[in-house]
Design goal:
This protein has helices spanning 13-32, 37-48, 54-64, 71-91, 121-135, 149-152, 193-201, 242-257, 318-322, 343-351, 364-367; strands at residues 139-140, 146-148, 185-187, 206-215, 227-237, 263-270, 273-282, 291-292, 297-298, 307-316, 335-342. With 371 residues, it is an alpha+beta fold. Strands 1-4-5-11-10-7-6 form a 7-stranded mixed beta sheet, sandwiched between helices. It has a two-stranded antiparallel ribbon with strand order 2-3. It has a two-stranded antiparallel ribbon with strand order 8-9. The radius of gyration is 35 Å and the shape is elongated. Bound molecules: phenylalanine.
Length: 371
């Protein structure tokens, strides 16, 4: 039976909805049944003719006939229906299969390309470094980025007001003055707090690496970002010596940068290690010569020194063990080493990128080069 526009008695939203759906449906099946040009013309006239076309009837019967309180809702429905029917009528054409072309699949069109995602260069570098330590039998631990003053500073032997805190300025969560200092929250400045968190949970011996995000109050420039990434390492056992630290890190650097890389330790200071050192590796850009290419251009990454600083390290300070003594870390019985390296810096060097900001701007043209 051909569709005729019903008179409405019920103007509720549900009834209007149903009436509109019926009408749309009728128009759809009539469009699908168009077989030739004559069909198409009468289909168009039947729905669109100004005088007595179905849309005009709908306008007269549903909208003009609506009681005042239903006018608004009826207007919305009728307008929506008009738009949908106009679309159907304009899209309709002669189709030998009886299917609307808009529903047909054109198999000659190219497919939709969905590019495969790739690891971000920083994350890739992180996985590589963690992989080297996993092969040495290390486990992976993680900790919160929003940390307490206790774990980030106090238990790492930075006493309140100690000047060493100035070297790691960060963002503190506001409105915490009422709390004791050790409970105040901050964005962690290094992954070292997870040393303490892990030793609170696991008894010695332990060997862990801790990858994660850290923050410092450093204005962004080509080599600084207020957010960056570190990998911490911690080994605690009986009779761990500085020799173990050197051997482990020398092996790790060779695994990461190639067997010809040389390592070099220089004395340094961290409150939570004693003695402390900075580890340098021979520059893998210039091979340690400080010069590049045939014209002996100065090597920028190592500032012509031939050495690149890659991490801080040292023997765990006995004062740190005191904070976790009850879990088996008696400084008279156990010893250990720790290290912390900046992943982003290593990724910059590895990929020859000259601005750390590029890592965090999310520009696909930059990132897709690592895919
Ligand atoms: N946490 C130190 C830093 O961020 C690095 C470090 C880790 C030094 C472990 C020694 C031992 O600068």
């Amino acid at each position: 039976m051909a569709y005729t526009v019903p008179k409405l008695t019920d103007y509720s939203a549900a009834a209007l909805d149903r009436a509109a759906a019926d009408s749309h449906h009728a128009c759809q099946s009539e469009a699908a049944a168009v077989r030739n040009d004559a069909d198409l013309k009468s289909f168009r006239d039947r729905w669109m003719a100004r005088k007595n076309g179905i849309l005009t009837q709908i306008n007269d019967l549903w909208l003009k006939g609506a009681p005042p309180e239903a006018k608004r809702e009826a207007g919305i429905q009728v307008n929506r229906l008009k738009a949908r029917i106009t679309e159907l009528v304009e899209g309709a054409h002669v189709s030998p299969t009886g299917a609307l072309d808009s529903e047909a699949v054109d198999i000659s069109l190219p497919g939709i390309r969905r590019p495969i995602g790739a690891e971000h260069p920083v994350i890739k570098t992180m996985h590589e470094i963690v992989g080297v330590f996993e092969k040495l039998g290390y486990s992976v631990a993680e900790g919160p980025v929003v940390e307490t003053d206790y774990y980030n500073f106090e238990a790492l032997n930075f006493p309140p007001n100690h000047p060493a805190r100035d070297t790691q300025d960060t963002l503190f969560i506001a409105g915490q003055k009422a709390k004791p200092q050790r409970d105040r929250l901050l964005l962690r400045t290094h992954t070292s707090p997870v040393q303490i968190r892990t030793m609170e949970k696991l008894r010695p011996p332990i060997r862990i690496v801790i990858p994660g995000k850290v923050h410092r109050n450093d204005p962004p420039d080509a080599s600084h970002s207020p957010m960056f990434h570190q990998i911490e390492g911690l080994a605690v056992d009986t009779n761990i010596t500085f020799g173990d630290l050197k051997g482990t890190l020398d092996h790790a650097m060779k695994a990461l940068f190639g067997s010809s890389v040389k390592t070099h330790f220089r004395p340094s200071f961290f409150p939570f290690t004693e003695p402390s050192a900075e580890l340098y590796v021979t520059c893998f850009i210039c091979g340690g010569s400080g010069k590049r290419g045939t014209d002996n251009a100065p090597c920028r990454p190592c500032k012509q020194t031939g050495w690149i600083e890659v991490l801080g390290c040292g023997m765990v300070d006995p004062n740190v063990f005191e904070f976790v003594k009850d879990n088996g870390y008696d400084p008279k019985k156990v010893s250990g080493f720790a290290f912390g390296m900046g992943v982003d810096r290593l990724a910059l060097l590895k990929y020859g990128v000259d601005d750390i900001q590029l890592f965090f701007q999310g520009d696909v043209r930059f990132l897709e080069q690592f895919g």
